[in-house]
Write a structure and sequence with these properties.
The protein is mainly α. The protein contains 27 helices and no strands. One of its GO terms (biological process) is asymmetric cell division.
């Protein structure tokens, strides 16, 4: 979804500096170094503790000039990454180091804009040390290094040395005109360092992905394949850019190959979980289509001999590739061919789910499919899915979070466009459930949970508005005191967590019910919330949020 905490800040200044700033920004942003997200979203002291090992090593290099500090002369000098770490641990530390370098490069650009040459030089020295450390670390645990890698390493190291020398000369010059002319050279060198750095990181990540996929391809043992898939999953968790690399190198093809071999059945859940991660990017989706991945997923879901865990992870892949937030699902033509059997299997999984997690995955897949194609709603109606979902909501051990209720109410909202759905809702006591969902509140201060509660309130109001075209549903809603609750949600911003989307949905539902039962509203409510144009009522309710204290 949208909001990159690791966005680089612009700034080069002087003579063409803006263009160079944009170039550096694009280079750094394209790395999508995922560790930044992990580092930024934690307490500042914890972040400092994470960085301490890396930063102190940098200072040691500055002071000791990279001399070994081992007591034994023949003992190999230990770097940050010791042999006790796994490849994934090593790679994550490498990514942290890379993120620090990218951050330092961005800060150099900012200081350069302000002509703070002393800071520019000290930070350039620090970047130089970090680059040397990063390369040494990678070469310590890397299983193979290509000629291209060695060339890039040399180019980056040479350019960093040139960069340091440039900034040192700038420190020794006080003439403004000379500094102004040198600044453009520093800008160019900084941009080149960023380019080489980006290319090196891209090559490192590509080689790691290739190595893991080669291990999967050549391995004949269960343990070796399991280890490679686990490492690939960890790599995919590091962000969309890593997923693109894995997909580009044939990761989706290799993983589906595992899912088509009975000897690897025990690895299906882990393999499918990895596929779900990789298929968040367009490259992964294209690869899935090329290898008939939809057909493979349908076969897994409909095969009763598979475990519930395998079915749940297959449902997770379906949920991922049908997500309404993705803009590149149109090419999934084969999905329509297999949709009926997939929907049938998912409904069965919802009905037989032994835990809240399994139900969440299956219902999320169904919810996304109802957005994906309207025919899915008709299939759900034929399968009595409404009754199954409403029954599950009465089991607090299965539908136990706002996230699960969000999926259920999404399905009901999308099904409510069908006229036949109203009678199913009434028979399953669905109006009562929708009324309860209007009271959805987060149990903690978690932002994601609060957002889920808002979605539940909004979609339950939307569903009531759609279903209330049926007089029987409207009458049931009025008897359950839905009108007073909708009025309170409109008038009290705290009840709806200051959500405008909830407000609009509640106003729409209130107006629909007011037509069916005008006696249920006081005159002031009718004059303010029903009689005016929707936009005027909306503005009236949002103005209630203002404070003049």
């Amino acid at each position: 979804a949208g909001e990159s905490p690791e966005k680089a800040s612009e700034g080069f200044g002087a003579a063409g500096g803006y263009c160079k700033a944009v170039l550096l920004y694009l280079i750094l942003a394209s790395l999508s170094l995922p560790s930044s997200m992990h580092l930024i979203q934690v307490d500042s002291v914890q972040r400092w503790m994470e960085d301490l090992k890396l930063m102190t090593d940098c200072e040691c290099m500055c002071i000791l000039q990279s001399k070994p500090i081992s007591l034994e002369k023949d003992e190999q000098n230990e770097l940050i990454l010791s042999s006790q770490y796994s490849t994934c641990d090593n790679l994550q530390l490498l990514l942290k180091r890379a993120w620090i370098i990218s951050t330092e490069l961005t800060r150099i650009a900012q200081k350069l804009e302000k002509n703070r040459w002393q800071r520019v030089h000290s930070m350039t020295v620090r970047v130089n040390c970090h680059v040397h450390s990063m390369i040494n670390e990678y070469n310590t645990f890397s299983r193979s290094s290509s000629e291209e890698m060695h060339q890039l390493e040399k180019l980056l190291i040479d350019k960093c040395s040139e960069f340091t020398a440039f900034t040192e000369r700038c420190l020794q010059t006080e003439d403004e005109e000379i500094l102004k002319s040198m600044k453009s050279c520093v800008n160019e060198t900084l941009t080149t360092v960023a380019q080489y750095f980006g290319q090196l990181i891209e090559l490192v990540l590509t080689q790691e992905a290739q190595s893991l996929l080669r291990q999967i391809e050549l391995s004949g043992s269960l343990s070796s394949t399991e280890s490679a898939v686990s490492s690939l999953f960890s790599l995919a968790q590091e962000g969309a850019h890593l997923c693109r690399i894995i997909a580009r190198e044939g990761g989706v093809v290799a993983l589906f190959k595992i899912c088509r071999q009975d000897c690897f059945r025990c690895l299906y859940p882990q393999t499918l979980r990895t596929l779900a991660s990789i298929c968040c990017v367009e490259e992964g989706m294209h690869q899935l289509e090329k290898v008939d991945g939809i057909l493979c997923l349908a076969d897994i879901l409909t095969d009763t001999s598979h475990s519930e865990a395998t079915h749940a992870e297959a449902a997770a892949v379906i949920a991922q590739i049908t997500s309404p937030h993705l803009t590149f699902t149109q090419h999934l033509s084969s999905f329509l061919e297999n949709m009926e059997e997939i929907v049938t299997a998912l409904v069965k999984l919802c009905q037989e789910a032994s835990s809240g997690e399994v139900f969440l995955l299956a219902s999320a897949a169904l919810a996304n499919i109802t957005f994906f194609d309207t025919m899915a709603c008709e299939i759900l109606l034929q399968l009595n899915a409404t009754k199954i979902l409403l029954a599950a909501c009465s089991d607090k051990g299965i539908v136990d979070t706002p996230y699960s209720r969000d999926q259920v109410v999404t399905i009901l909202a999308n099904m409510s466009v069908l006229d036949q759905c109203a009678s199913e809702i009434i028979q399953g006591n669905g109006v009562q459930l929708l009324m309860e969902m209007l009271f959805e509140k987060p149990s903690s201060g978690n932002a994601a949970e609060a957002a889920a509660c808002e979605r539940v309130q909004q979609k339950s109001a939307v569903t009531l508005a759609r279903l209330s075209r049926d007089p029987e549903v409207a009458e049931a809603a009025v008897k359950l005191s839905c009108i007073p609750r909708l009025i309170k949600l409109c008038r009290s911003p705290t009840e709806r967590n200051n959500s405008d989307s909830v407000l609009v949905a509640c106003l729409a539902a209130l107006r629909r019910l007011a037509v069916m039962s005008p006696d249920g509203l006081e005159d002031s409510d009718f004059q303010q919330l029903v009689k005016p144009r929707l936009v005027d009522s909306f503005l009236l309710c949002t103005n209630m949020e203002e404070s003049f204290v």
